[in-house]
């Protein structure tokens, strides 16, 4: 927990400006960096979590293809 929240973030994503305190966190981020998560209603989100929140609030289904990315 300490490393994730408080440590110096010396591992920077090469695709965006986000930095991470561990290389493992950076690698996990790189798998989804730059992806768009699109709802069945065509609304776009930058994260899977945001898509899930939207889908739950509006009772939309979530495409199963995104689960393989996580």
Automatic annotation (TrEMBL):
Keyword list, A-Z: Metal-binding, Repeat, Zinc, Zinc-finger
Keyword Metal-binding: yes
GO biological process terms on file: positive regulation of transcription by RNA polymerase II
Gene Ontology cellular-component terms listed: nucleus
Gene3D superfamilies associated with the record: Classic Zinc Finger (3.30.160.60)
Domain C2H2-type positions: 11-32
SUPFAM superfamilies: beta-beta-alpha zinc fingers
Stored InterPro entries: ATMIN, Znf_C2H2_sf, Znf_C2H2_type
Superkingdom, natural source: Eukaryota
GO MF term list: DNA-binding transcription factor activity, RNA polymerase II-specific; transcription cis-regulatory region binding; zinc ion binding
Descriptive protein name: C2H2-type domain-containing protein
Organism for this UniProt entry: Bracon brevicornis
